[in-house]
Here is the input.
Amino acid sequence: MKKGYKLEESGMPSALIPQGSDAQKQVFVIGHKNPDCDCVCSAIGYAYFKNSVDKRYLYVPAKAGELNDETLYVLDKYGFEQPIEIESLVPTASDMNLKKPLFASPNDSLKKVASVMKEANIHTVPVVDTARKLSGIIGLKDIAEHYIDSMDFGDLSTTPIDLNILVETLDAKVITNPRNIAKLTGVIFIAAMQRSTVLQRIGAGDVVILGDRTDIQLDLINSGCSALIITGNTAISPGVVRLATEKGTLVVSSPYHTFATAKLLALSTPLHPIMSKDVPVAGLYTRLTEIRRKVAESKYRCVLLVDGDNRLIGIITRTDLLQPIRKKVILVDHNEISQAVDGVQEADILEIIDHHRVGDISTLRPIHVHNEPIGSTCTIVARFMLLRHVDIPPAIAGLLLSGILSDTLILSLSTTTDRDKEIAHSLAKILDVEIEEYGKELLTASINITGKSALEILQLDFKEYLLGTKKVGVGQIMVLDDEEISAKEQDIKSEMERLRTENHYDLVAFLVTNPLESGETILVKGDKRLIEKAFAVTVQDDKCVVPETLSRKKDFIPAIGYFCGF
Here is the structure.
C-alpha cells in the first residue's frame, strides 16, 4: 500500500466514511489487476454498502493498478477521488496493532533504564535523541555486562559520570561544588582501609567513597582528591564543608551505606557509551517475513520501526509475531490468483463477489462467495443495496450504472441478463438519465487510444488465465474507428509476442470490438490452433475475424478452455 494514505483518498466521499478505525479494523475492497470500470465501480459501491450495514469494520475501496480513461471519466463525473492503490497484500508492520514504545535518552542512567525495564517487564529499550531520532539500543544483557566489568571500578576518565545522573541515581545531595564540576573523572576508590593505607593510594583528582570518618575526610581533601561521596546520610562537619570549599572539592551525601552506594555508582553511567549502535531497524511497510528474519538474527530479539527521518515509531518483539497477521480483503470482479493483486494468498479474504468462472483462489476458512452468471459485478452490488433497502445516493448510482453499461456494452453483449437490464433501469431512474444516451457518452469516453503506445493499448484491459495445462493472456479493446487499430497493428503484434515470450504464455489474443459493426477481430500470437478450433476460423498473418461479437468471459474463454483440456 502506498504511503500517506488518508481516508478522504479512498475513492468515497468523506461524508460516507466512518472515522477512527485502526489498521486491524480496515477491510480493503479491491478488484483485479488492470482494473476496468466495472471492477473499480463495484469496489467503491460495495465498500459503501458494507459500511452502511456492517459497523464492525471500515471498508475501504482500493485499486490494483492504473485506471483506464473510461473509469477516470466516470470517477470525475460523479465526484470521486481515485481509490488508494495497493501494490501488495503481503502483511507489513503497518498491519500490526503497535503499542506506544518506551524509550530512553542517551544521557539517562543505567539505573533509570533498568528500573523501567523491571517495571514494564521488558528486556530492551530504544535510545533516541531530543528529536526522537534513533541513537541506539540498550538491553538487559548490556547492563549486566557493564555492571560486571565495572566491579573493579577503574578510571572514570574514559567514561565520566554526569553529576546530575549521579545525584539522581543515589538520591543524593550536593553539599559543596565550588568549581561547578559537571562530570566526575579520575579513579574511584572506597576508603575502607587504615588511614595511612588510604592516603598512600589516593591520588589527585580521584573520587573517594567513605563513611563518617571526619579525620580521613579532611586528609583526603588536602591530598587533592576531586570528590568525596559520604555515605549513610551521616552528618558532615562544618570543618569538612569549609575545607572542601577552600580546596574546590565536590562533596556529595548519599543516603545509602557504602556497599550499596558503590553498587549504585556503577549504574550511574549514562547510556551513550554503553548502548549499541548496531540497531535492527525496519519501516512501517517492511514485510513481516523480513521482520521475522531480522528479529531472529538480532541479539536483542526485536526490530525497531522508524520513519523516513529515522524517528522511532515502535518496537516489534518475538511475542508480537506469535499471532498470524493478515490484511483483510474482499475481492470483487475476479476470483483467480493470476488476476489478483500480489500477495492475495497471504491475505485474509472475507468475501468474493464476482460474475466470472470459478478460479483457483482458496481460503483457510469458509467465506461468503457470491458468483452469479450475469453481465456485471455492479449489478450484484446494486441488487444487494435494493434488497437491504440501503439508500443509493445519485453518485453511487452513477458509478454502478456506469459499471453495468461498460461491462455489457450498453446491455448488448451476450452476457447481459434480464437482471442487468432491470437493475440498470432502476439506477437510471435515480439519476434521471436515458440509458442509451448515457451509454453512448460513456462509450465515447472509453474509446480513446490517441497518443497511447502499442503496449499501453494492449494492456488497457488485459487478463491472464490458466486453462488446463495452458497459460493464456487475453486483451480486449473497443474502437469506433478500425483504422486507429490498423495503424498500430504490427506494433501491437510485436508487443504480444514479447509478452508471450517473457511470461511463457501458450497463447496471447487481442480482441478488437467495434460496437457499430458486427463481428470481432482477433490478433493472435502463440498456439493459433486453439483459436481456429474454438471458432472454426483460419488465422492468417496472426489475425482472424469472428462473425459475432464476443464476450471474453462468456464466449471467448469457455471456447478456448474446451480445447485446452480444461
Q: What stands out?
A: Residues 550 and 556 are 6 Å apart (CA to CA). Confidence is low (pLDDT under 50) at residues 1-21.
